[in-house]
Amino acid sequence: MVRNIFKGLGIALITPFNEDGSVDYASLVRLIRYQLDNGADFFCILATTGETPCLTSTEKQKIKELVVETVGGKVPILMGHGGNNTAVVVEELKKADLKGISGILSVCPYYNKPTQQGLYLHFKAIAEATALPVVLYNVPGRTGVNMTAETTVRLARDCKNIVAIKEASGSLEQVDEIIKNKPADFDVISGDDALTFPMISCGAVGVISVIGNALPKEFSRMIRLEFNGEYNAAREIHHCFTDLFSLLFVDGNPAGVKAMLHEMGMIENVLRLPLVPTRISTLKKLSDIMKELKL
User: Fold this and answer.
1) Average pLDDT, the chain
2) What's the predicted TM-score (pTM) here?
């Protein structure tokens, strides 16, 4: 039986760039080591926060190899692999270099706006194309389509290597419905930093986190406290980060967390078009909050 190993604090890993726009591989290695030393339980690479649509095939392969080498088997690695052409996604998955990869994160098809039956058949085809664990990714704010709890549970029951969902619909009602009806060996992972505290209290097993890039120690502590039933202490950390959560995404992701990491002296504040850095006003607010929290 295939089980979900992606629990606790997962890092939705950014891609650092140099001032000239090239990938800053040295900073990427330092960032991964920093996160490993401060509570990261797994990594999610080459997905939304990594600006993957703006990376070349060569860059993606080098990043994958570098992450695998740097992590060195210490924690699992989940790799993004999705799209809106089912046949192409399946074919590429069969040919992909998955050495050192522990599972696949696959986003709902975007732009096409498929029906629930279309979503079901899409993910069923992906699950059949690999022996690796598959984590579904539902993020209607980006894809234009919401995968319902009913479809998620149907996939969990019918496809034994579909082990979890990164749920970012923003609906706690939908999260609760999935958790109530899912098979015992299927898990829900938060796809929204701001909702991680309530989602874990509902039964989610962790988060694929953006803020974890910059603050893995603090965010992993909140999760561990909650797992231990220490809800009051966990809630205090959650409330400390409330203002940061909104600022991280007001100018798009990963602009906010890249601004934070730049303020911490870890990377250059560079993104690839069509994404741009945060506005100066947002950057100042981020900086003020970080100083107030002594980060």
Assistant:
1) 96
2) 0.96
Measured in whole angstroms, the distance separating CA 90 from the mean position of its chain's CA atoms is 21
Selecting among 7, 60, 166, 285, the annotated active-site residue is 166
- What are the CA-CA distances from residue 193 to residues 38, 71, 74, 103, 125 (Å)? 17, 23, 24, 21, 30
Let me know if 166 is a catalytic residue.
yes
Of the residues 64, 120, 137, 285, which is catalytic?
Answer: 137
- The encoded tokens of residue 50 equal 């990594």
Q: How many angstroms separate the CA atoms of 63 and 95, rounded?
A: 18
| DSSP H or E stretch at residue 95 | helix 86-95
How distant, in Å, are the alpha carbons of 24, 28, 83, 175 from that of 77? Answer: 20, 15, 20, 24
Helices (H) and strands (E) in the chain, counts: 13, 8
Say what percent of the chain tops pLDDT 90: 96
Mean pLDDT of 279-287: 93
